[in-house]
Structure formats: structure tokens, C-alpha cells
Amino acid sequence: MNDVTTGEPLIVLDAVNKWFGPLHVLDDVSLSVGRGEVVVVIGPSGSGKSTLCRAINRLEPINSGTITFDGQPLPAEGKPLAKLRSEVGMVFQSFNLFAHKTILENVTLGPVKVRKEKPAAARERGLALLDRVGIANQADKFPAQLSGGQQQRAAIARALAMQPKAMLFDEPTSALDPEMVGEVLDVMTALARDGMTMVVVTHEMGFARHAANRVIFMADGKLVEDASPAEFFENPRSDRAKDFLSKILTH
Amino acid sequence: MGEFFRVLTDNGQLFVDGFTNTVKLFLIAAVGSLVLGTLLGAMRVSPVPALRSFGATYVNLVRNTPLTLVFAFLVFAVPKLDVNIDYFASAAIALTVYTSAFVCEVIRSGVNTVAAGQAEAARALGMTFGQVLTLIVLPQALRAMVPPMMSVFIAMLKNTTIAAGFSVLEAGAIPAYMAERGEPQFAVLLWITIGFLILILPLVALQRFLERKWRVAR
């Protein structure tokens, strides 16, 4: 896997702070993600890693600091914000496929309504994407008729249909039955290999080890470690990370 | 029994005129309040604080004002502003203004039944607020809105009778005319009740139809 990225970074967070009431969920977080880089964010629950992921497309507004995407600061609202979001794919823990639309409609809705693509072209690419994630035969079903793993793969296809510059994954396998985790991770691994810029919040240490360029460890809203997977798993520097790893790796 | 039917046949034109105006008032106010109420509902769930508070203020103000007062404002107060509208138009506007507040709340409660993740996923794709609402949220909210919406419209249909107090000849005005003609009031009231039942039956059928139609759409 390529661990050297070129050019200016795609996503840059600089001194980002966010509070939920008295709770400091993002505490002076600075981070940059290069083009083609796969960054896995791990940490105990409540550490702010999901908030970090959601802040990148402004599903969570921040209180201070700056976030730039592709050289531009994140727009605050309106059309410019919508345009930015159309360039950043997002995959949610609970899939969030549109329940009243078929799988194919889920995948073509964004390109047709947001990107104003021709329905025929969007349909063709949508079917190709569904084929790529292995569920082309489910195209005309409704989300509720699919298994969790199939739904999440459809959600990845939906995000990819927008031809995004980066993909955000907010615990994409946490709501899945164990036997379905692998099929989703396989799709994500293939995507990483194809050079997609990815920020992945996950508890899947195997994925972090073999697919990530970098591992970010967060605790109490702070970015505690930023290291290569090998370095992080073999030789964590902070006590928080050592403690966290000892808890999850002994089982 | 013959007497009961005679009340209707002798005064057929009055019943026809009255109920025709009732239906007209109902249809105008139904369309008007559906449009205005949906706009208000959109305001109440919008990301713009000023619109949200406008929607909330409208609902709290109008919903808590007795309908008779809303009528009185339009019929007596508005002409003082040198605006000339006739009683029927005033009644239609009063009903629309009042019912919109209830429609707004039905829309809002329907929107609240749709999981927040649906709107979030739509926003993450780059949809505007209008697209999120019309393409994703409202279509899924419709199903939950049908029963309370029909209750609002049935209530509104009966609320049209308040217009009788403001010189509009509709079904609610029939008893007064009939009293002048010396007809037995009990028979008159029964016929009006039957008239409203007949008007409400299609609404009930429509509700059943829509509930069934939108049940399979997922």
C-alpha cells in the first residue's frame, strides 16, 4: 500500500473545538488527511471520534477552529455547503438508506437530483456500482428487504455514485451481525486499494491494521496518537492507548 | 314519518343552496389550509431560526383563538382597513387561517415520525432543505399524517357552520330560515346531521384509501 501521498492535503482540521453543553467533545483537534490516504480513527466510546467524522461534512457544526476541504474552508450553510457535501461521501452506522425508495433509486437519487445527471446515465453507473459492491441482483428491492450487510454495501454504493473526492465512514460495521462485517470491510478495503481518500471511524482493528495508512487514537475529545498502524499496534506511546488496546485485544 | 320527509321536500332548494355553500367553503379552505399549513410546517422544521419562531408564533396565536373570534376579526375588523371583501370570502379566509395552524401541526408530527437519519443521509448527499423535505421526509411522513389530517378536515367541515353567524348561507344557517317558515326544528336538525354524515363519508373513504395505498409503499 502506498504510504506517501502527494500534493496538498485534502482535508485539514486546525485547532477544532466543539462542545455539547459542558462536554468538550473535540478538544483542540488538528489533523490533515492527504489525497488517497486512509485514516482510521479509533478510541473508546464518547471519545469524540464520530463527532470528528461528522464535522468534516458539517453534519456537526464546530465552535472554533477551521476545517478546510480541498483547499476551501467549509461553507457555513446553504447551497455552498450542499455542494461541499455532494463531494464528500458519507456512510452511517445505521445505513440510513431511503426507506421509500428501491436500492437502485437510492443510488441514483443523488446524481439525478443534486448533480442533475441524466437518469439513464445515473442508472447505468448505479447498476455498475451495485455490481461492484456485489448486490446488483437486489437493485429493485426496498432497503428493508435486504440484510444489514447488503444495506450497508448499498449505502456505500449510494455515496460512491456521487463520485466523491473523499469518503467518511462513521462506524460502518457497528450495527451489523458479526457474519456480515466481513463483506462490508471487503468493499471498504477494495475502495482503499483503489486510492479513495477515506476517514474511517471503526472498532475493527483488523481493518485498521491492513487497510489504513494512519491510525488516529482519540480519548476525551483529544487526538492522543497519530501513527502508522504498525507503530500504533506494536508500540503505542500513550497510557490511554495502551489501556484501550489491552482491553480490546485480550478478547 | 311523512312529516319528516315533507320538511326536506318542501324546502329542497334551501337545503341544496346551504349545503352547496358548505361544500364550497370546505373545498376552498381545505386547499388553502393544506398549502398554507404545509408552508408553516416547513417553516417549523426549517434550519432558519426566524422562520421557526414565525411558524411557532402563528400556531400558538391562531390555534388558541376561538374560531368565532377569527371570523369576527375578518368580518368586522378587516373592512375597517378599507379592504372590501364579502362575507363568503371572509369566511373562507377565516377557516383557512384557522385550519392552517392545525394542518401545520399534523405535518410537523408526521415529519417527526421519520427517522432523523433519513434527513441526515439526504443532507450528506448534498440535497438542499427543500429537496430533503419534498423528496425524502414528506413522502415518508404522509402515511402517519393521514388519520390526524382527516380529523382536522372533518372538524373543519363542521366548523364551516360558524359562517352562519356571519351572514353566510350555508348548512348551519338552515335552521334559522326554517324557524321563520315554522318548520319543526327537530326534523330540520336531523336532516342537517344526515347531510353532514353524507359529506363526511367520502372523507372517511379517502382516508382508508390513502392509508392502504401508502402502507405498501415501503
TrEMBL record, chain A:
Pfam families, sorted: ABC_tran
EC top class, as a word: translocase
Molecular function terms, GO-annotated: ATP binding; ATP hydrolysis activity; ATPase-coupled polar amino acid-transporter activity
Primary location recorded for the protein, binned into one broad class: membrane
SMART domains membership: AAA
Catalytic activity field: a polar amino acid(out) + ATP + H2O = a polar amino acid(in) + ADP + phosphate + H(+)
Membrane-topology annotation of the record: Peripheral membrane protein
Keywords, sorted A to Z: Amino-acid transport, ATP-binding, Cell membrane, Membrane, Nucleotide-binding, Transport
EC number: 7.4.2.1
Subcellular localization, as worded in the UniProt entry: Cell membrane
GO cellular component, one term: plasma membrane
Database matches in InterPro entries: AAA+_ATPase (IPR003593), ABC_ATPase_HisP-typ (IPR030679), ABC_transporter-like_ATP-bd (IPR003439), ABC_transporter-like_CS (IPR017871), MetN_ABC_transporter-like (IPR050086), P-loop_NTPase (IPR027417)
Domain named ABC transporter: residues: 11-245
Top-level taxon of origin: Bacteria
Family according to the record: Belongs to the ABC transporter superfamily.
Protein name per the record: ABC-type polar-amino-acid transporter
Protein source organism: Micromonospora orduensis
TrEMBL record, chain B:
Keyword Transmembrane set for record: yes
Locations listed in the record: Cell membrane
Family: Belongs to the binding-protein-dependent transport system permease family. HisMQ subfamily.
UniProt xrefs under CDD domains: TM_PBP2
InterPro entries: AA_ABC_transptr_permease_3TM (IPR010065), ArtM/GltK/GlnP/TcyL/YhdX-like (IPR043429), MetI-like (IPR000515), MetI-like_sf (IPR035906)
Entry keyword set: Amino-acid transport, Cell membrane, Membrane, Transmembrane, Transmembrane helix, Transport
Protein name per UniProt: Amino acid ABC transporter permease
GO molecular function: transmembrane transporter activity
